[in-house]
Amino acid sequence: VDIAAGLIHRFDPESGRNDSFDFGEPVGCIARRQKDGLVLAAKTGFYLFDPDNGERTFLSDPEAHLPGNRFNDGTTDMQGRFWAGSMKDGGDPERLGSFYRLDPDGAVTRWRDGIYTTNGLAFSPDGTRMYFSDSNPAVRTIWVAPYDTETGTPGTPEVFFDTRAVA
Fold it and tell me: Which residue in 47, 86, 84, 80 sits closest to 63, CA to CA?
């Protein structure tokens, strides 16, 4: 994605074809759906998007009360839950970001608040650990939390790596 331009890019290595789709607002992250299309987190919340026909379906805006925020980074767990993190968009950094889980049934759960720049969402290969970070220069820390694959609930996080310790 080109976050600021609101573009979603799709490259086909077999044909060499590169398509771009203008979503019309900043797009922080996307994931392919098992069915056709994408799930994405954009400036105004979660959407389904089918690049083949341009159809977009609004799901939820968990930060409608924070119009200066946008989504930044995301991933899916092995059960198909889409995780995305938000951040303040422009100006002086503030701890206004949060991590959210979008379940396949459309339910949205806020998990963790007080983040400058949400980044680095990932899961261990067996899915039982969740990694996330705040990449703001004042924090630059990666955390890991045990992850309940049945409920999609992270446990208590601990510091995995503090990059400020590296020159």
Answer: 86
Mean pLDDT of 76-80: 96
Spell 91-104 as b/e; 16+ CB within 10 A means b. Answer: eeeebbbbbbbbee
**What is residue 136's DSSP assignment?**
S
pLDDT tens digit sequence for 42-74: 999 999 999 999 999 999 999 999 999 999 999
- 74 burial type by CB count under 10 A (0-12 exposed, 13-18 middle, 19+ buried): buried
Listed in sequence order, the residues at least 6 apart from 13 whose beta carbon sits closer than 8 Å to its beta carbon are none
pTM: 0.94
Please check the confidence at residue 22 and state whether its pLDDT lies above 80: yes
Question: For residue 160, which of 147, 143, 145 has the smallest C-alpha distance?
Answer: 143
Where residue 167 falls among pLDDT bands split at 50, 70, 90? low
Q: What's the rounded Cα separation, in Å, for the pair 112 and 35?
A: 29
Long-range contacts of residues 104-107, Cβ cutoff 8 Å, at least 24 apart: 104/80, 106/59, 106/60
Number of other residues whose CB lies within 10 A of the CB of residue 160: 15
At 50, which helix (H) or strand (E)?
strand 45-50
